[in-house]
Structures are given as structure tokens and as C-alpha cells.
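User: Predict the structure for this protein chain, please.
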Amino acid sequence: MEPRISVVTLGVTDLDRACAFYRAMGWPAPRRPDDEVAFFQANGLVLALWTGVGGRGAPGVELAYNVRGPEEVAPVLAAAAAAGGTVLRPAAVADWGGTSGAFADPEGYVWEVAHNPGWPIGADGSITM
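Assistant: Here is the predicted structure, written as C-alpha cells:
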């Protein structure tokens, strides 16, 4: 098995609302083969949103979105709030030496937005630890 993530699946209660949120955050239009699932291409992986009808519903998952500079954390949090998300933790210097904050999407999934100076981000969006 190769050490990578190919698909991250989030259970949602309202697929249209969830798709609208991610589109408002700048994600490309999803593929929606039916009314139960949507697939977003995200560089080298896929984000899937799946309803309780077709999938397992809305279990808790936390994800992270790393940015290239500390000044990028707050604007991402602001974009999330403008798209209908909730900022849970504003951008602040973290005890581990970076900058981070967090938001919840309309379904309650928590995303950390972080700049970690020890984890450079490649041109393709990949992170090197």
C-alpha cells in the first residue's frame, strides 16, 4: 500500500448545502452521479460528500488545510465564515511555532487552517514533513 490518501469522505445531512459551501470556498464543481453523493477533485485526491441515505450519515471527522504563509490563515477563516461556516478558533500563533485557526463547515466538520514553517508546501500542494 502506498502511503497516501486518495479519498476523504464526509457524511452530510444536506448534500446541496454542503456542495454550495465548498463551491463558495473555491472548490471546482463536483461530479454528482446521483442525489446521494458528490465528488470534488482536489489536486491529487478526492473529497466525497455522502448523505445518510447512501452512506453512513454524518460521523465526526477533522481535516487540516495547510497554507504557505502565516498571513494566509485569517483570510481562509474569513472565506469560510462568508460561505456559511463558523470560525471556531481565530488565527493565532500556536505553541508549536506556526499559526493556526479553525472553522466548522455547515455540517459541523472541523477544519484546522495552519501554517507550519517546518512543513513546506510544494507547487502541487503536497506537504513535506
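The chain has one domain: 7-52+61-115.
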